[in-house]
Amino acid sequence: MSADLIHPGHINILKIAHNLAKDIEKKEKIKCEVIVGLLTDKAIASYKRLPYMNYNQRKEVVENLKFVDKVIPQEVLSYEPNIRKIKPDFVVHGDDWKHGRQSITRQNVIDTLKDLGKGELIEPHYTEGISSTQLNENARAIGITTNARLSLLRRLINAKAPLRILETHNALSALIAQNASVNKNGEKIEFDGFWSSSLTDSTSRGKPDIEAVELTSRLNTINEIFEVTTKPLIYDADTGGKIEHFAFSVRSLERVGISAVIIEDKTGLKKNSLLGNDVAQEQDCVKSFCDKIRAGKLAQITTDFMIIARIESLILNKGQKDALHRAFAYRDSGADGIMIHSRHKDASEILEFLDAFRRADSSTPVVVVPTSFNDITASNLANAGANIIIYANQMLRSAFVAMSSVAQGILEHDRSKEIESKCMSIKQILSLIPGTI
Ligand code: SPV
Ligand code: MG
Hints:
Elements: H1 8-28, E1 35-39, H2 41-45, H3 55-63, E2 70-74, H4 80-86, E3 90-92, H5 102-116, E4 120-122, H6 132-142, H7 146-159, E5 163-167, H8 171-179, E6 181-184, E7 187-190, E8 193-196, H9 198-203, H10 215-227, E9 233-236, H11 243-256, E10 260-264, E11 266-267, E12 282-283, H12 286-299, E13 306-311, H13 320-332, E14 337-340, H14 348-360, E15 366-368, H15 378-383, E16 388-391, H16 394-413, H17 426-432
Parallel strand pairs: 1-2, 3-4, 5-8, 5-16, 8-9, 9-10, 10-13, 13-14, 14-15, 15-16
Antiparallel strand pairs: 6-7, 11-12
């Protein structure tokens, strides 16, 4: 079981298991238990979204149900390891797994029981009219609390890699990011969260990416995003500003439920990293940036909020040695993760960094932003040791192209007929947001 949203269908299955156990106890005069194999967050995240409750919370709920005697972790989707360990008299599972991608898992249970020469598979009929999917949709419509959203990023990092994070600069782009999904080999792939980019947030306000948009204004946008979504958000705080100010910013970010802040090790008037050394950019000294990280960590109130230190050494041609030295120094000053940035067309310098960093540190989360090196996949970056992959600006860049072409087209044709095919239909836009009609 995942047992995130317990419903009467679950109780029905547990009751049947309980009755089977009681029958054995009566017949054979031995103690017989109902043991629930509870899927861990990692096992669940390998094929669908993270559960609302973490493993320990779900365990507490299930072990207090009256038909359950014991709960054990099921670390993988396959039931085989637990079945081999327990050698049960019965395996009880709802019959909804006979079809679709779960049928392979089911067949594996049948084969394992056959191989053990013991144990019978019992498949109670799936309870109609209630399902976790339906409950999920209802829960999504209600929303998510500030704390639950804030802690989601850490839980996701612990449960899987890569995490795919998409830039969103307003509520509408966030809704698109929230709902986009593809099915690959039975696995549902979605974006795991949002990136509040300094570049696109300032560009969409017609301002340069030089720390000119103030925090309050950016938080207004994020509040609008949070009103209509449930996924976690990583905030691009540029340099983090003065150390004393950064401490206040951390608390403001936590208060709205942002999961992580990324600060870059630059000082003076910040320019966008993708400009590299084409413009004057100064890297902060290691000591002062470490002080900033420490001040932020001291200021934060929640335990789950993350401060991620962004290293600009490769952007500024300071070399791998400098990048690695800074990565370890920032980590040792309390950074919860590091981001390594590059503006090379190919990923080789990022891969070189990941290789060297992971040799010395297998656990600190690493973030990468493959804007320039865009031919490497998120999966390949994760295989090389990255945890979080941020697509940092594609939503705004694509929107700009689409809108410019439509604006030009209307002027050229002196009417809108020709550009109609580039637009969503009026019917679609009227039904896009619930409550419009
Ligand atoms: C942003 O999206 O604002 C970033 C990433 O900081 S980059 O533009 O690549 O510097
Ligand atoms: Mg930025």
